[in-house]
Specification:
Layout lengths: L3 H14 L2 H12 L4 H8 L3 H13 L3 E6 L2 E6 L2 H11 L2 H8 L12
Antiparallel strand pairs: 1-2
């Protein structure tokens, strides 16, 4: 039987993933890094909402940011979560990942 603290950690991870926007953000970041504006365009929500979701994902160490000038580019950090998302989404991800534009339209690109 897993230890109580491990069960609590797993519960928190699943709670964070129980949001459609966060799943879209994570999946997009597994395709490559992006800015808040690029993610907002991709997932169809406001940059403010994306920033709030990214803050929670950063605290959980699922994403990390890289500052370049005035922009922050985010990338997915945890490959275990990628495998979990791929398993949960099943075959649907192979077709969907083909349609994700890389680099993201509208996002300034690093030099």
């Amino acid at each position: 039987m897993p230890a109580d603290h491990d069960v609590r950690a797993a519960t928190e991870a699943f709670r964070l993933l129980a949001d459609p926007t966060r799943i879209k953000i994570l999946w997009a970041l597994y395709q490559g890094e992006s800015s808040v504006a690029g993610l907002a365009d991709l997932v169809g929500t406001t940059p403010t909402a994306v920033s709030q979701h990214l803050a929670k994902l950063r605290l959980a160490r699922l994403v990390r940011g890289r500052r370049e000038g005035t922009f922050v580019y985010y990338s997915a950090h945890d490959q275990h979560v990628r495998r979990l998302l791929a398993e949960a989404l099943g075959e649907r991800v192979s077709a969907a990942s083909e349609r994700i534009p890389t680099p993201f339209a509208g996002a300034p690109q690093p030099r």
